[in-house]
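Question (not urgent): is this output format expected?
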Amino acid sequence: PKPFDHYIQTQGRVEAEDNILVSAKSMGVVTNVSVTEGQQVSKGQVLAHIDNSVIVRSIEAMKSQLELANTVYERQRNLWDQKIGTEVQYLQAKTNKESLEKQLASLQEQNDMTRIKSPINGTVDDVMVKIGENIAPGMPAVRVVNTSDLKLLANVSEAYVTAVKKGDKAIISIPELGKDIESKVSFVGRTIDPLSRSFVVEVRLPASQNLRPNMTGVLKVIFHSESSAIVVPINVIQNVNDEKIVYVAESKGKQTVARKRVVKVEGVYNNLAQVEGLNAGDRIITVGFLGLNDGDAIKI
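Got this back:
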């Protein structure tokens, strides 16, 4: 008897949790691109500028009008405090000032929209705009990727929908890295794809400079572990007349004979099979078992 793991094996792909195509919020001509591929950027950093000359002139004009409106308001308020003039004059001056303040705030917000900013901390993966190009809202400008938060997505057959659970141990093999990564299942999809008859499994990956989005990997999800199981090499199990059989060596008087045992395979892992129908201590014939019949005398 030995510990034995039951697992599902499938292929998956590495994805970044934050893999964002940053687009413009306003229409215009690109006047400056301030980042290059591979550059580290922080959240809120300006990646590119769109021509804002018209808005800047409007802001300057609005500031002049607001300055005058503030002066008129202050003087009208002082007069009203001294009970000079009418309340209507005071309220008109106040309303005019507040209206201009709101218009100025709106222009400044429009001016801020001419700056394409990074929404996350990450690395610039692709710059798709050039100086002089026209850009519109929704058009991709820069791709920013945060490779410190990666996951592996894989599709698992619906046959295992009740077996796989969040928290199950997972082993990911990335061929390019040449090593296995141990993690746990972080998400199990609740819907079945009608075409592939599978559901999505997600496994979080540790931060690594060598991991890249869209890498492929082999995922093994260990959904059940036996602490004490009867295990034999998978290659000694034969399929004969729709039965799975194993030959064991037994002593019969002075002879050693082969005995056929019908077994039930409970699971396969790492070229080993957990079986029912054998006992601890049975001597399994591992070489020369092909062509044997039950009761044949054998030499070891």
